[in-house]
Amino acid sequence: MTDQFSSTFRDLTHSLAPPGDYVPHAYHTRVADALLSGRRVILRAPAGSGKSLAAWFPWLASRLHAYDFPPKLLHILPGGIFFGDLHRQLSALTQAVGPYKASIQTEGDALDPFFLSEATLTTVDELLSVALHRPLGLHPGLANINAGALLSSYLVFDEFPALPFPETLHAWLGLLRRYYPIVPCLFMTATLPRPLLEGMAALLDAQLIDASDVDAGGTRQWLSSGALNPDAILRQHRRRTIVVCNTVRGAQTLYRSMQRMMDAEHHRDPLLLLHQYQFTRHRLPIEERVSALFARGSEARGILITTSGIKVGMDISAETLITDPAAPDVLLRRAGRCARFPGEVGRVIVAPVTMPEP
Length: 358
What we know:
By secondary structure, this protein is of the alpha/beta class.
């Protein structure tokens, strides 16, 4: 199985990116072997090491070969994040293995309310309502349709430490253990300590794969500073800068202040604002522009002001990342968008950048 899967992995990766852009790690095969052998998996791997690809490839391989594996993939992320990059990658891979469709089903972008697509990106709250037989936005009489979709799916819980409430994780662990004992699932994290993951693995009878020693991404220098106003942020800016605010209101206020200052100084670098409360028709073009400006190997210039939702889902990288103070695990996830790719060198500056709420 390992040799066959490795060959499939190389072929599909080649269809996703130019040759040499992505080198799979050994843990990708270990994850596939465990899942396709009937084991649940808890994966710990650093940001930028390809966790999403490790999660998708067992399901993709089962579409190409006669593996006994669920026909549907549900990729579950914390709410209020940006799905554009993940959706484009997943769509490319699903189309490479057959006439399959990848869709999005969230509270804001309800494009697949019955989970009819072969692969669906969704949020933990959206799917929890399905697991409890009360789908958000659907009549209770239709609950059995979505419950059937859940029972016939492979579940990927991406960056579950970012869930807003610990009770959500407790609910899912209880549901998977008692009511969905045969549904295969993968939990992924870059930040949780090993002892906690060992406890989860024992609870779910899962295999823990710790790939935290994988050499992924570039080199980051961590700095701290006092409060940075728009002028100070602009002085720290080199080519590509991401500023992460703790609140949407703070990001909006900072964006307007920087826009006025940059207009007055005739600064030509583009300034972008991206947050989870923007309407879909406004947010998607900004997501596409952000993905292009901050892509692997980009030589473009720009400043992005955003919120904590950027820490999951977007495959982008900046030379400088300035972030409001936050909990250590949150800072680590935000730092995954600085010097994300091998060979890059970046700075993560922890400093207050938004005014306290009145």
